[in-house]
Model the fold of this input.
Amino acid sequence: MSSSDSSSDATTGGPAVSVVVIAYNDAGLVGEAVASALAQGPVVAEVIAVDDASSDGTARVLDALAAEHPRLKVVHRTENSGGCGTPRNDGIAAASAPYVLFLDSDDVLPPGAAEALVRAAVTHRAPVTVGACVRRELPEGREVPWMPGLYTPGEVVERPADRPELVRDTLCVNKLYERAFLEKHAIRFPDGRFVYEDFVFTSRVLAAAPRIAVVGDLVYVWHVRRSAAQVSISLARADVGNWRSRIAAHTVASRTLAEASPELGRACQAKFLDYDLRMYLRELGEDPGYRAAWWTLTRDYLTGFADADIEAAPARARWTARVLLAVETPPADLERLVRFAAEPPRLLPPYATGDGGGPVWSTELPVPLDGLDGLPLAELPVTVDAEPAGRGAVRIRVHDLYGRLAAAGPRTVRLDFLPRAGGAAVATRPVELRAAPDGDGWSAEVPFRMPALAATGRRRGLRGMQAWDVRAGVECGDGSSLVTSLRPLGGLLRRRALPSSRYGVLLAQPYRTAAGALALRLAPGAGGALTFVRNRLDRARTRRSR
Done:
């Protein structure tokens, strides 16, 4: 069908989209995914569900749905492909509408997603249209935007090379594709047992230089089920094989993009250093064997990076890569590197200087921290410590970082409590910072009243156990500021049972997150306490299953 034909269909409200749903052993969830696609309305000409030789009844569920809904077509594979690429390719081959949209069997399309994407595709004659995506943590329901700030709603990108940072969005599911564009450039997913097939498909799309239209609408809800018996590929990072697969996918993607555009190729390398590398590093775990294997694999891969590609990466990614290249085995301060990879990053003391007086990673590994003096204060990897300071308060210590904070003149600090279920932060009153007695940075005692925080959460509708991230906000005399997480010290992580006039008793558990940052669980009353216990048991079962 020509572009003019597709425009006619879409603007008159006619069918324009084939939604390709892939499923493997997901009988309990695939129905919801299919229902969300059918509920898009008449703009969806057909929903093509590809069953990848499931053994759990997924095929029966899909056939039963197809008997009720004429727009649903089911493709049954006789052999499992081992990945997501082949069934998606089967769906493209079976599609008949001018546009294609992808959906995984455990996710959903929000209402109006297809209509919004098609409208923009037709208006701007764009072979690719992209919208917003959220990662929805289940069962909590907390939603985390995918790549916030990367796109501007309403913009039209004439060539991907004009916006090389778009390589950071490797998802295929938050985009609408013109089928004629895919056919013209023979764009398909890698077949078979290929993990992170999105990376390769997306690189092929960008390499073909399509016009890209952007909508501000939410078009995809990515469900994240961390406690599932079989977690998704993107969460199954306990085996070094997963990292090897990611490297393999990135290798193909970066080569594809570099051949099409030097700008896109370089941006892809920078994305790997700043996103992929840091994500896996901060989730490195405690197993020495895994750490050693991961280090060797990563270092071997980074040796193939051009110096210019490392130079082009953001400062924190550049420093991390250089530390990895500087030593053949995991260094003694590996935990420090893990904390530096956290979000927000924190460079723990002590701070060393090189022969020329400039900042370096450490005395043992004098990797230059070049560009540190040019980073805005808000981007500095500042370390802020927290320890008990009597009843209802914590002592905060803000460490200087090679004189950068001293030059800005820290004046006050406050605590921000961010509900992990989503919502606005609860901030304490700013407290004046004073020079620490030992001369190491600045300190202050800040209110840490957990019963009052629990009451605020309750007023905001938080029921049962409440979970909060804790941040420190530092304001400086020159007008600059920064917000970062806290490193818990001393006996701050001790569980407490606090008297409460409202709840009778409040169970409070300050804890250290996987990134080493302070967080807080509050369980008001008997009901909250029961939720607290259940969650602890669930986390214990999840750890044992892994």
About this structure: Residues 1-12, 539-546 have pLDDT under 50 and may be disordered. The longest helix spans residues 240-260.
